[in-house]
């Protein structure tokens, strides 16, 4: 017999569609299974909870091996926009909500949303720069305390 997972803490450090969605999908799945979930946004992952940027997250088209086309092609003007629109249309067909709506939905289930204090300070930001669902700006040590006794994932 194995013990069931009671708590999961997910670190989101990338500011692209493919860097943000995996953590959101895992947090949403955890909450649907009754597992406590906390999300810790650090470095460019802060874009997912930034009031100005969270509606404009793009797919990374340069150097993304999952796109299966040459790196130089991803650098052409408009490629990132086209690939982002394509991916968003595919996700919409699967009823996967846009990032702002998804984060609000996850927050409404009781998941904790936290910004990394070191990253917030590094980028000269404050609580006013973030969405209302943010539960706090905390240190790495504070996050470790929240994660204590559970599993931790880095996306």
Describe this structure in words.
- This protein has 155 residues and is of the alpha/beta class.
- It has a single domain, classed as DsrEFH-like (Hypothetical Protein Ychn, Chain: A, 3-Layer(aba) Sandwich).
- The protein contains 6 helices and 5 strands; from the N terminus they run βαβαααβαβαβ.
- It has a 5-stranded parallel beta sheet with strand order 4-3-2-1-5, sandwiched between helices.
- α5 links the parallel β3 and β4.
- The chain starts with 6 loop residues before the first strand and ends with a strand.
- The model has no long low-confidence stretch (mean pLDDT 94).
Note the main sheet. Answer: 5 strands, parallel
Query: What is the end-to-end distance?
Result: 28 Å
What string, H for helix and E for strand, traces the elements in order?
EHEHHHEHEHE
Strand percentage, roughly? 15-25%
Order of adjacent strands in the largest pleated sheet? 4-3-2-1-5
CATH architecture: 3-Layer(aba) Sandwich
Q: Which CATH class applies here?
A: Alpha Beta
CATH homologous superfamily? DsrEFH-like
Mean pLDDT over all positions = 94
Integer-rounded radius of gyration: 16 Å
H/I helix tally: 6
Record field, number of beta strands? 5
Topology:
Layout lengths: L6 E6 L4 H16 L3 E6 L29 H4 L4 H15 L5 H10 L3 E5 H6 L13 E3 L1 H8 L3 E4 L1
Parallel strand pairs: 1-2, 1-5, 2-3, 3-4
Helix pairs in contact: 1-4
Please give a handful of descriptors for the protein shown.
155 residues, alpha/beta, Hypothetical Protein Ychn, Chain: A, five-stranded parallel beta sheet, 6 helices, 5 strands, 38% helix, 15% strand, globular
